[in-house]
Amino acid sequence: MEAVSLSQLEGHDPQPLRRGNRARYLCPLSAECREKPRDNAHRSLSVETATGVFYCHRCGEKGKLREFWEERKDTKPLVKKTHLRPVAALVSRAIVKEIKPEKKAGLKILRERMTAFAEAFKGSPAAEYLAGRKISAETARAAGCGYAGSWEHWEKKNEEWTLSGTDRRAAFPVCDGEGKLVAVHTRAIDEKHINSSKITRGNKSLGVFHSSRDAFASPVIAICEGPVDALALQTCGVPAIAMIGTTAPEWLAEKLAGKAVMLATDADKAGDDAAMKLKFALQPRTKNIFRLRPLAAKDWAEELEIAGVENLREYLLPFSPRIDDAARVNAAWQFAEQGFYDEAEFIARLVKDTELKKSFFSLVHREHLKAA
Q1: What residues have CB less than 8 Å from 6, skipping those under 6 apart?
Q2: Is 328:349 a contact under the CB 8 Å cutoff?
Q3: Proportion of the chain above pLDDT 90, given as a percent
Q4: How far apart are the first and last CA of the chain?
Q5: pTM of this prediction?
Q6: I want to staple 266 with a disulfide (CB 3.0 to 4.6 A). Which of 152, 162, 271, 330 is the partner?
């Protein structure tokens, strides 16, 4: 059969039936299915939302959605160069549900170093680097950011570890669902640096970066790819977390249950695919999800640099948890008048006043029907 993606399914059937961790779509995979009536009785394609595995009960097609494909790995053992320090190498980068006891020694060292990095942040080159990207020192410190003045790069030669050099980096804590540090993500702050400009030590698959220590307490939250993107949104009043890539930890969907969620991944194919995959995983637990895509840049950090704090804050204000119901409805109505109904409906669902919300939706749907 031909490969099929989640975005293709959503385009063919934007209103599937959802039950817990399963969804049923109108099947686009065969002529037999495509010719059937477009109603609930003919939504024959069953999809596991956690794994992307699908099966059509009518035509028998089965497989895994493209967004859930994993890179095939060579089964032959390879000796790979690593830049992890010997003690930090104890912290596995494999995807596991729990940290094994023998790896806790390396994790303890990592936590101690992140604490030292955070203490060195005030007035540091890392603070200056983020300020140059329009992130204030107060916002960065509140998120636990740090400065690594001599980030070490190690290589293994002839069975021995040798220090290949150091460079200066901004450091970002990556924490699990309970707020415990599981990894440290770094970004080089100088044009000349060793190895990649972005390096993570620890198990980033177990955690996320928080734009503020109480980000998960907010009823409205954004999900980004990188820490500076999350800090950019926080600067404009929108609490955010960063996945350090395009894959979310297993616990995240449960943590976001019942919240309003903005999928603020990058404005490229990888970001769009990640947003679609996140939407698929989150929908059984939260109904108010919106794709907050960067407007004029690849990501929200660049967007902040281009637009400036005041302009971007004004645009994002209706999406933040801070404004009152009347202001939110007014902002939602303005979006609706411009034809941006997804934005309008997302913002309107944040309104707490039941009568105000009901009245707004009645007007918007009437206007939407006129436009159609």
Answers
A1: 52, 65, 66, 67, 68, 276, 277, 280
A2: no
A3: 53
A4: 36
A5: 0.75
A6: 271
